[in-house]
Write a structure and sequence with these properties.
By secondary structure, the chain is an alpha/beta fold. Helix content is 43%, strand content 17%. The protein is built from nine helices and nine strands.
């Protein structure tokens, strides 16, 4: 299998929807490998997803040439290629800000480490939580954020604080030179253009499900 991922002129031209599908392909390829499947066609991949074979081939074609016509894709090689495109072939260190119910749960979420994301530092403004240890991570004063980010070479920040504190926490992460942030607070945050911000709002996801129930959409 040959990949020409380096030929992409501008990765910013790749849509977020395409990136999300690549993540799903990676998980499916892991499942196929566990099932003992070594070669898979785009049609077979389509049968295990909500995407057409044409869509799958198009997504992969953005990054190079994969597989052999009439044969399919080598599962292990394609999995490795997709993970490299996603950048999850190398470990990514993460800082968590906010150690309430959600933050504590994230500290115990082993799937993150399985996907090469490791929370190596956690911060809270509640002094009663400082120096507590959850899953080998010491909770620190948020005043120590910038120094810790530099010393531990942290690349990603997770915001798990109440709505009213989210913007100030984001500003602290930006000041600490974190350039990729995942926000769980249900807030519209103002972020510099050079910062990549992803929002996860569970209420929006539930409202989407409610819409389908309300209108009986199949």
């Amino acid at each position: 299998m040959r990949s020409n991922a380096s030929l992409i002129l501008n990765y910013e031209n790749i849509s977020q929807a395409t990136i999300n599908r690549l993540s799903l392909y990676s998980r499916l390829l892991s499942t196929l490998a566990l099932e003992g499947v070594t070669v898979v066609s785009s049609k077979e991949l389509s049968g295990r997803t909500d995407f057409t074979a044409t869509q799958i081939r198009r997504d992969l074609a953005y990054f190079g040439q994969f597989g052999k016509r009439g044969i399919g894709y080598e599962v292990a090689a394609l999995k490795q290629a997709v993970d490299t495109i996603l950048g999850v072939h190398v470990p990514r260190k993460v800082a968590l800000i906010g150690v309430g119910n959600l933050g504590s749960a994230l500290l115990g979420y082993r799937v993150l480490r399985e996907h090469n994301f490791e929370i190596v530092a956690a911060f809270d403004n509640d002094s009663s939580k400082w120096d507590r240890i959850i899953n080998n991570v010491v909770i620190q004063n948020i005043a120590e954020l910038a120094e810790t980010v530099q010393s531990k070479q942290i690349e990603i920040g997770i915001i798990a604080v109440p709505l009213y504190a989210a913007q100030s926490v984001l500003d602290c992460l930006v000041a600490a030179e974190i350039k990729a942030i995942l926000n769980f607070a249900p807030a519209h945050l103002t972020v510099p253009r050079h910062i990549k911000l992803r929002n996860v709002d569970l209420s929006i996801e539930l409202e989407g499900l409610s819409y389908f129930l309300q209108h009986q959409v199949p």
